[in-house]
Automatic annotation (TrEMBL):
<dbReference type="GO" id="GO:0005634">
    <property type="term" value="C:nucleus"/>
</dbReference>
<dbReference type="GO" id="GO:0006952">
    <property type="term" value="P:defense response"/>
</dbReference>
<dbReference type="InterPro" id="IPR035897">
    <property type="entry name" value="Toll_tir_struct_dom_sf"/>
</dbReference>
<dbReference type="InterPro" id="IPR000157">
    <property type="entry name" value="TIR_dom"/>
</dbReference>
<feature type="domain" description="TIR">
    <location>
        <begin position="9"/>
        <end position="123"/>
    </location>
</feature>
<protein>
    <submittedName>
        <fullName>BnaC01g15260D protein</fullName>
    </submittedName>
</protein>
<dbReference type="GO" id="GO:0007165">
    <property type="term" value="P:signal transduction"/>
</dbReference>
<keyword id="KW-0520">NAD</keyword>
<dbReference type="Pfam" id="PF01582">
    <property type="entry name" value="TIR"/>
</dbReference>
């Protein structure tokens, strides 16, 4: 079970994802449910383009949970991959719990690194 009583700084969910379709569909519903449940969360949608990624890393370090929404475009973004590296570092310190969510992606295609992440791809 996840321990959510760490400190006030770690009472936030960091959501990592890529793509407008995901933002308009799944993420918009997720945001509304988190708000309704009074759960603090961070999505970089309000971040200024070109802003230093170190600022984003601070936000990851201030979070207790990370949701990584893996879609077929996630790994196309160096920014997302950098976030993923920082999330992994924080997991190793024990200050962050991370949960991958496969959005229209077959987890087996990632596990075996077969290349294409489209859920309709036949292997």
């Amino acid at each position: 079970m996840t321990n959510f009583s760490r400190s006030w700084k770690h009472d936030q969910v960091f959501i990592s994802f890529r793509g407008k379709p995901l933002r308009k569909n799944f993420v918009s519903h997720l945001k509304e449910e988190l708000k309704r449940s009074k759960i603090n969360f961070f999505i970089d949608e309000d971040e200024t383009r070109g802003r230093r990624i170190a600022t984003l890393f601070e936000t990851i370090r201030e979070s207790g949970v990370a949701l990584i929404l893996l879609s077929n475009k996630y790994s196309d973004s160096e920014w997302c991959l950098d976030e993923l590296v920082e999330i992994k570092k924080q997991m190793e310190t024990g200050y962050l719990d991370a949960f991958p969510v496969f959005y229209e992606v077959k987890s087996a295609s990632i596990k075996s690194q077969t290349g294409c992440l489209h859920s309709d791809q036949r292997h």
